[in-house]
Design a protein that fits this description.
By secondary structure, this protein is an alpha+beta fold. The protein contains eleven helices and 25 strands. The strands form seven sheets. Strands 1-2-6-3-7-23 form a six-stranded mixed β-sheet, with helices on one face. It has a five-stranded antiparallel β-sheet with strand order 18-19-20-9-21, with helices on one face. The radius of gyration is 24 Å and the shape is elongated.
Length: 487
């Protein structure tokens, strides 16, 4: 393994490594904003910051290129912070530690933040490329894409002027994205009552770990394991077979990630300890068989725990487990217009103790059809209401309707074919891109989304394919002035 020192294109990777040293979780982008503003000042570039915290850095047209159309290059500043349980990491202060092998760049035990640090690095490399002869470039860096798109929501007319926008936030080299899903959150707050733990009880902690997790939109169709669902299934089996009591349940972390880990503390009669352990071992084998090579690292383990003073009252425990068991997770419908595209899905993202006396259950719905998105949310709401939970919805964000006649799509397609000797695929993506909000807010905006190949986004397995970063960079230079700019 090595650092990124010898990777090409060197300027892009140098900026990416700098970005990795700056904490930048969603809603905590102050340090990365300061870094961008210092970058603009150092390179004598005009910079603006709006009330939402978005930053625009402008490179004026090269002499003789003033007639060219302005290009907006867009990425987001924030990243998802996920780490392995055994990795110490302070997200407010510690840097990401990227390492490279021959093919991939990863981080040590945490998310890498290539989503969308690599897009930011590409913008910065373009802005400082002295050999580039180009029209005006507006580099837009938005905040809080991962947890609410508040930066995109907060954009106001006039902050940028270009009407051709290149979004740098997709994760599949060789695919040009021209549409995306809209999304919303549906959250249930389930009242819980507790009771004292009686004598003669043994406590065990159950852990579901080793799952890959993944992006709750782009990877929802892959059949990846959901730790909350697996734990719920196991606990219901133990309750039916041994009458165990539930002291605590916690699974999942982020609304836009398929949950990787879940933990529960159960109470049982001391004499049932060995048969319960055997049942859990058998259940682990069942899960491994069902998930196969897709989730080869999944593990269900038990350890002794201190007997707590309280446990969930029986009816409360059953309401919680039955609600989690009934909640849908995965693909609801495939697109009839674009083969292979998920139209509508829902993700059971997390279940954790909330405020005193309740459990909070977070789900996310996505769809390229607005009515279908709300219908999926209503299905989840029905489960919550049957369980006695209070339900709330986020405002959500719109989708981006594909435009096969797009000028920038045509130029990008032709440039890709000439550069790499093959045709790119043209698709819509079952994930939320800020393009949906740009499409709604800025009439007449012509857009395409590209990126290098990233795998495992939103998980500690996140990795970016080195070869495709070079291709991503080469394609950038087609728009930015060396060839085929819109005029």
């Amino acid at each position: 393994m090595s650092t990124l020192k010898n990777l090409e294109p060197a300027p892009l990777w140098e900026y990416f490594e700098e970005i990795c040293h700056i904490p930048r979780l969603s809603k905590n982008e102050g340090k990365i904003r300061d870094y961008l503003l210092r970058f603009a000042e150092k390179n004598k570039l005009e910079a603006r910051e709006d009330d939402a915290g978005n930053i625009l850095i402008i490179r004026e047209a090269s002499p003789g290129h003033e007639h060219r159309k302005t290009i907006v290059l867009q990425s987001h500043m924030d990243m998802v912070g996920e780490k392995n349980e055994d990795t110490p990491h302070d997200w407010q202060n510690d840097p990401i530690k990227p390492v490279a092998d021959r093919e991939w760049v990863r981080a040590k035990g945490t998310t890498l933040g290539a989503d969308d640090g690599i897009g930011m690095a590409a913008q910065m490399a373009v802005l400082t490329d002295r050999e580039l002869r180009t029209g005006k470039i507006e580099a837009l860096f938005t905040v809080d894409e991962e947890t609410g798109m508040t930066g995109a929501f907060g954009l106001k007319p006039g902050f940028f002027n270009g009407r051709i926008l290149i979004n740098l936030d997709s994760e599949d080299e060789g695919i040009l994205y021209i549409g995306c899903a809209g999304g919303m959150d549906t959250v249930g707050s389930l009242p819980i009552e507790y009771t004292a733990v009686g004598s003669g009880m043994t406590a065990l902690k159950i852990s579901v770990t080793g799952l890959r997790g993944g992006h709750s939109g782009d990877e929802i169709h892959k059949g990846l394991g959901n730790s909350v669902k697996i734990m719920t299934r196991l606990l219901l089996n133990l309750k039916a077979g041994f009458g165990i009591a539930l002291a605590e349940f916690s699974g999942g972390n982020l609304r836009n990630a398929i949950p990787r880990e879940a933990f529960a503390t159960i109470l049982l009669k001391t004499g049932d300890k060995n048969p319960v352990a055997t049942t859990i071992g058998n259940f682990e084998n069942i899960i491994k068989s069902e998930l196969g090579a897709l989730e080869s690292e999944v593990a269900i383990s038990i350890s002794e725990a201190t007997v707590p003073q309280r446990m969930l009252e029986e009816k409360s425990a059953l309401r919680l487990l039955n609600a989690l068991n009934a909640l849908p997770h995965g693909v609801i419908a495939w697109s009839n217009d674009m083969p292979g595209l998920v139209e509508t899905s829902t993700n059971l993202a997390s279940a954790k103790p909330g405020n005193e006396g309740c459990y909070t259950i977070v789900t996310t719905q996505r769809s390229s059809a607005e009515p279908a998105k709300h219908y999926a949310s209503s299905i989840v709401r029905s489960v919550f209401e049957l369980a006695g939970a209070e339900t709330s919805h986020s405002d959500g964000y719109p989708g981006w309707k594909p435009d096969p006649g797009s000028e920038i799509l045509r130029i990008t397609r032709e440039s890709y074919r000439r550069l790499f000797g093959k045709d790119p695929e043209v698709k819509a993506i079952h994930a939320g891109l800020e393009c949906g909000l740009f499409y709604e807010k800025f009439n007449g905006l012509d857009m395409v989304s590209i990126g290098p190949t990233i795998r495992g986004a939103h998980t500690p397995q996140e990795a970016i394919e080195i070869r495709t970063v070079g291709m991503f960079w080469d394609l950038h230079q087609q728009w930015d002035g060396k060839r085929d700019r819109p005029s």
